[in-house]
Amino acid sequence: MMSYGPIIIAVSVIVFYLYLKARVSAFVEPARLALLERADELLSRHDLTTEHRRVVCFGVENAYSTSFAWMMAIGFLPSWIYHRLIGGKAKVVPVKRAYDNKITAFHRLVIISAMGSSPAAMLVFMLSLLIAVLTYVPYKRALELFLIDKAAHAAERPRHAASAL
Q1: 124: domain range?
Q2: 40 domain residue, yes or no
Q3: Rg (Cα) of the chain, in Å, rounded?
Q4: Number of structural domains the chain divides into
Q5: Structure confidence by residue, pLDDT tens digits, 10-42
Q6: What is the pTM assigned to this prediction?
Q7: Long-range CB pairs of 104-107, under 8 A, 24+ apart, other chains included
């Protein structure tokens, strides 16, 4: 005799996850619209650096990306460890710019928008962020460095013909 209990549980979990994903996506939609407005505002600035311009374009391209959400969720803590312990030895002093607050707000909107595409990735990311906060990690700078690295990597990567459409 076949037991349908595990199948019913699996289907229930899948249905619940899809419902949760739709609700979270609807919840972060205003943040995604604010992201587009902030991106337009930043890209219209003449004093925006090439690096920040790349980050803004990358953020807009990946606002709905589940794979980027997982990349952030899994890569945040290792990225912080690398920049803090290995790559953090450089004596580079960040330059204050007139748009620093706006770019920081843009980074937050990118994270919220991307995490809205995958509740499971959001959970993993929040656990990584909690670990970072509990160990006194300057997570704001770590997130900025992570986005800059990913944007630079995406700029170096050749585009496929399908993604150009």
Answers
A1: 5-156
A2: yes
A3: 18
A4: 1
A5: 999 999 999 999 999 999 999 999 999 999 999
A6: 0.73
A7: 104/140, 104/144, 105/38, 106/35, 106/38, 106/39, 106/42, 106/55, 106/56, 106/59, 107/55, 107/59, 107/140, 107/143, 107/144, 107/147
